[in-house]
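Suppose you are handed a protein chain with no further information: no name, no annotation, nothing but its sequence. What can you learn? This example shows the usual starting point.
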Amino acid sequence: SAQRKVQTYNFDVRKNLLEYDDVANEQRKVVYEQRDELLGAKHIADTIEAIREDVANEIVAQFIPPESLEEQWDVPGLENQLKESFGLELAIQKRLDDDKGFHEAEIREWVLSEMLKSHEEKIEKAGAEVVRDFEKTVLLQTLDQFWKEHLANMDHLRQGIHLRGYAQKDPKQEYKREAFTLFTDMLDAIKFHVLEIVSKVQIAEEDVEALEAQRKQQSLMDQQRVQT
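A reasonable first move is to predict its three-dimensional structure. Written in structure tokens, the prediction is:
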């Protein structure tokens, strides 16, 4: 009887581990499919455009919540964030003072249009091919970096999730919920980081070559680490 209980317990442990691994494997599948698409694409202009729009909307919403009163807005915070992260100096408060019809939607459109304008100027200076290569390399490098950090966070989460049972919560459901939050946070962080680099760095052809060499070297080191 005791032997059967032990065997049943061991089976349940393996089953739980497989269920936890399934969550990570599903996320891994999404990341690897995205990575393969990036590697196979000649350029990722459409992806960068979508990232730019998402980040612009999220940044504005962070300081100017949708459908909020103007008294709740943090315009100085928004101006500072745009300058520090993306090199944009926009006198948003002055424009609000000068134009009473300038509100939340118009601010989002202005921020996005200025981001796009700055990017087009970069293309004119460095050339479209150099900029596109740089975008692709930065996104691949960022995806690899953030994915490794995410896996470490997932492992840490799994090691402590059983404690949720003491709070009358299902550890597996809590793990799935928090793993999903970690994954979406990672994707948001990737978009912000990529746009920040693409916006602020003055791109030259040698920068692209150096980044690509660094990415390949890191990828080789990771493969060797896995093999050992």
